[in-house]
Specification:
Strand content: 15-25%
Number of strands: 21
Radius of gyration: 25 Å
Number of helices: 13
Distance between the termini: 28 Å
Structural class: alpha+beta
Length: 425
Amino acid sequence: MSDNNRMDSILIVGGGAAGMLAGIAAASGGKAVHIFEKNEKLGKKVYITGKGRCNVTNACDAQELLEHIVTNPRFLYSSVYGFSNFDMMELLEKLGCPLKTERGGRVFPVSDKSSDVIKALSGRLHQLGVTVHLHTSVTELLIEEGRCRGLTVRERDGKEKQYLGKVIVAAGGLSYPATGSTGDGYDMARKAGHKVTELFPALVPFETEGDTAGRLQGLALKNVEVTVKNGKKEIYRDFGEMLFTHFGVSGPVLLSASSYCAKALKKGSLTLTVDLKPALSREQLDGRLVREFAQLSNKQFKNSLGSLLPAKMIPVIIERSGISPEKKVNEITREERGRLIDAMKGFTLTLTGLRGYKEAIITQGGVSVKEVNPSTMESKIVKDLYFAGEVLDLDGVTGGFNLQIAWSTGWIAGKEAAGDLFNDI
């Protein structure tokens, strides 16, 4: 019987993070494994993660890892404990890709090259005899009487071919469509009878109202506290780094905020408040201003803030304080200092929308996890059909958490599809 007609084959749709891990897990069980990837190489999206360095995972403990999952963290309990972040790190180290841990628990290859992660995983796939079909698109799942029997593919030359076996859909989401993430997995899931929840770009920059962000374009701020509110309701609060752009705001702390704000932002604008001096209370900041102004008593107000604020921000803060830039600092009143403190500890912008999928790191939403077995990743609707990675309604904040979702769910899907033949590696 030819390989593509073996009923016990494992057929994986997509050769990204989840697909590669599913392939390694399934092949270690001695199964014939095929990965179908429409790009010219495996791991095309992995290649660009972490600005090309690949933030592989996060070195926090499992409970903390789950706390960084925004959508459906409880669903991930079995897969994260079944194949943890430390299991992933051990696997890569074993495969000759040494790792290092940086600030915030972020884990990267020592080489700072995402290509080394892909090389390690694709090398292991080759060792295990996995057949990788590049330039090959899956056009249809073969479902009969509630069971997935295989799939149909279109090869580079346009010819169609059928393969029989269990199917793992790891086709990614909609983010970075240039890497091949064009929503194919969602279409397959819907045709199989699955619900796909509403989709949003996530870990994506915000657009803001007015010209303030544009005036501050290129300015990066560290150690600020950001708060996003919908009216009086607080949606998100955290410390970190942010960046002003020509269209709005970005940077790690705001990319993470986008995952919490997408649904609310669709209904209307939100208020972003930035505390530029979160380490100082209002009283402490006022005391510092009094001391600084005493030393610069004859200087004009516009020339007195250099030790407190980046140069680019000073004109904007002065405007917001309502104090004349020409005023001598020894003439500034207590009430005016209060307004200056308001401007620094309550720097507000109106968030009007999110950038699109071309700039989004991940997709929020996906195949409803209510219809997927969390212990096996198998569909509750169609037997022998599994889902893994970004195609599922799972997402986390920045810091390696989304790749760990892919590694964990991919591994469990591959292991469970391989069944009793699975051997740990």
